[in-house]
Design a protein that fits this description.
DNA polymerase, domain 1, four-stranded antiparallel beta sheet, five-stranded mixed beta sheet, 3 domains, alpha+beta, binds magnesium ion, 14 strands, Alpha-Beta Plaits, 37% helix, 359 residues, Dna Ligase, domain 1, globular
């Protein structure tokens, strides 16, 4: 069979919880919930598969998780450990191809059309990568193999945990026909409801409509959906997008309005970004906040400091300030938050104090 291009999407399984279970044998086989204190207004960051059986999921208030599963093991997050595991995983991926695009701490796309092992079969390659990750980190990953990026992403989610799912080029339409639209990346409850009112429940249903009504109801995003439902995606893996900016972002399982929850998320992202800066010996003075609202409107807000932040708390404070003053957070539900430091230099090349500027 001819594969025009070969992509693998790697997604670590219940990442934070899996790291805790790896490091604490007594947690294995038990419901582990990583998040803030159940007595506070915090939420679940990640939970183990054993906890999901109780109906616990990420973004749920930790207090509610505690009610659902009083015997659960509630753990505060250890971002530095997760960050370290993440870097190990990403460096493993780069031994197979330089075309690795990291999308979050625990997720990446690989273009393996050409790969360093010169292996023709992308499924065999994905199997090797999974084994390699497990051998080094003792963590499992799920992989999706497909001729384009969004299909690879959907595929990696099909058989979690420790799954491997292939969508070969000649099975793309078969795979999409009965696939609920909700499974398409970016389709949340709201888009699902809009499509539902148009009697469009599966990708196959979308084959029967013109692009125009989708565009009218959903804007530009409608065009994207139209193409995805037909299996079309010509994006390329971009391995260099973090070069002048070090960032982390997360799309939430549902759109969020609660400010305290969003601030908690920013703390995670700030700790992650700061840790990566330190590891790479880099520094930058501009804190960049990215917000994508439920309707896919996306904005970035930034603030440049007089000197690079010296701890993650500073990054967090600035991000919260930008969120509170320069976004519609709290009024308009948010589906994605990203946080980054831009204008990176290596620490040695850091210029002296510069006058503070705001924008
Ligand atoms: Mg994951």
């Amino acid at each position: 069979m001819i594969w025009p291009k070969k992509f693998i999407h790697i997604d670590m399984d219940a990442f934070f919880a899996a790291v805790e279970q790896r490091d604490h044998p007594e947690y294995r086989g038990k419901p582990v919930i990583v998040g803030g204190d159940p007595r506070s207004r915090s939420v679940v960051s990640t939970c183990s598969y054993e906890a999901r059986v109780f109906g616990i999921h990420s973004a749920m208030p930790t207090a509610q998780a505690k009610r659902l599963c009083p015997q659960g093991i509630f753990v505060h997050p250890h971002f530095e450990k997760y960050s370290e595991a993440s870097r190990t995983v990403m460096s493993i991926l780069r031994t197979y191809t330089p075309l690795v695009e990291q999308v979050s701490m625990d997720e990446a796309y690989l273009d393996v059309t050409e790969n360093l092992l010169k292996l023709e079969d992308p499924v065999a390659l994905a199997g090797l990568i999974k084994q390699h990750i497990f051998a080094v980190t003792r963590l499992t990953a799920s992989a999706g193999v497909a001729p384009n990026m969004f299909l690879a992403k959907i595929a990696s989610d099909m058989k979690k945990p420790n799954g491997l799912t292939e969508v070969p080029p000649d099975k793309v339409l078969e795979f999409l026909k009965d696939l609920p639209v909700r499974k398409l990346p970016g389709v949340g409850p709201k888009t699902e409801a809009i499509l539902g009112r148009m009697k469009l429940k599966t990708c196959g249903d979308l084959w029967g409509v013109e692009v125009r009504p989708l565009y009218e109801k959903l804007g530009k995003w409608g065009k994207g959906l139209y193409r995805m439902a037909r299996g079309e995606d010509d994006r390329e893996v971009n391995p260099h997008w973090e070069r002048t900016q070090l960032s982390a972002e997360e799309t939430f399982p549902r759109d969020m309005t609660e400010i305290s929850w969003l601030r908690g998320k920013l703390a995670e992202l700030a700790a992650h970004v700061f840790h990566d800066l330190q590891q790479e010996g880099r520094a930058g003075r501009t804190v960049v906040l990215k917000v994508k609202y439920h309707d896919f409107e996306q904005i970035t807000r930034s603030q440049t400091l007089s000197a690079p932040p010296q701890d993650w708390q500073t990054i967090h404070e600035i991000a919260c300030d930008l969120l509170g003053k320069k976004t519609s957070a709290g009024k308009k539900a948010i589906r994605l938050l990203g946080l980054g430091i831009s204008g990176l230099t290596s620490k040695e090349a850091q210029p002296g104090p510069v006058q503070k500027e705001l924008f």
